[in-house]
Amino acid sequence: MKKYVSKFHYLTHDLPGFSHIQQVQMACSAGANWIQYRCLTKPEDELVDEINEIAEICDEWGATLIIANHYDLIDRVDAQGVHIDDTDADLPTIRKVIGQDKTLGVSAADTDELLKLQSTGVVDYYAYGPFASVVTEEPDGSIPIGFNGYRQLEKLGIEIPVIAVGGIQLGDVENLLQTGVDGIAVSSAINLVADPATKVKEFYRKLY
Ligand SMILES: Cc1ncc(COP(=O)(O)OP(=O)(O)O)c(N)n1
Ligand SMILES: Cc1nc(C(=O)O)sc1CCOP(=O)(O)O
Ligand SMILES: [Mg+2]
């Protein structure tokens, strides 16, 4: 079943002084229609309450909510889907757990991983990157793929939406779209600036 996948994925981040709930309120009120809750610090019981609070905000604004990694929580939260950052995860099992109606996104760092994911037949979109270096992470040896990395995709016969991710700045958007990617995912370029809501609006103006 083909599912709608937005051209713009806003990702929350664990930040002092700017909670996930505040981030989602900011993004939705600035017009974001696709929110990924990406919390790497809280225990599961706290996650459920926070996700459901965030789900209410998303409902109010008509935004889609995706949760990062915690697919086992899908029956306890009001979210449209999950994003899995481990390419080696057992994706057919995850699909069985979440069901056919939920959206399943997965991260990939090279073309072999993209093709491997495609062969599973259970993924709705790929997040492919990093496009550039990710300022919020320790270097993990992954090589930024740059514009050329996305241009190679046409030859591969990838049929599922590809979302560019990792180190994307506003000024990269036009050139990224020209490579043929279906959308972009952004966290730091919004969450770490003085006026994140204005930045969300600027990303939307570039994308639509
Ligand atoms: C849309 C989207 N893209 C990427 C990620 C997470 O990034 P990744 O590098 O795959 O995972 P970490 O190891 O950094 O957690 C995401 N959550 N969503
Ligand atoms: C957390 C994360 N890691 C990525 C990787 O490719 O390793 S992409 C990503 C999502 C956010 O990226 P940004 O903050 O640069 O927008
Ligand atoms: Mg990463």
Question: Radius of gyration in whole Å, from Cα?
Answer: 16 Å
Instruction: Please write the CATH class name.
Output: Alpha Beta
Report how far the terminal alpha carbons are from each other. Answer: 25 Å
**Helix percentage range:** 25-40%
- How many helical elements? 8
Mean of all residue-level pLDDT scores = 97
Globally, the shape reads globular
- Supply the CATH architecture: Alpha-Beta Barrel
Query: How many domain units?
Result: 1
Enzyme class: transferase
EC number: 2.5.1.3
Pathway: Cofactor biosynthesis; thiamine diphosphate biosynthesis; thiamine phosphate from 4-amino-2-methyl-5-diphosphomethylpyrimidine and 4-methyl-5-(2-phosphoethyl)-thiazole: step 1/1
Organism: Mucilaginibacter celer
Characterize the structure shown:
- This protein is of the alpha/beta class.
- The protein has one domain: TIM Barrel (Alpha-Beta Barrel).
- It has an eight-stranded parallel β-barrel with strand order 1-2-3-4-5-6-7-8, surrounded by four helices.
- The mean pLDDT is 97.
Question: Which helices and strands appear, and what pairs or packs with what?
Answer:
Blueprint: E1 8-11, H1 20-29, E2 34-37, H2 44-61, E3 64-68, E4 81-84, H3 91-98, E5 103-108, H4 111-120, E6 125-128, H5 146-151, E7 162-165, H6 173-178, E8 183-186, H7 188-191, H8 196-207
Parallel strand pairs: 1-2, 1-8, 2-3, 3-4, 4-5, 5-6, 6-7, 7-8
Helix pairs in contact: 1-2
Ligand LCLJCK34 binds next to strand 1, strand 5 and strand 7.
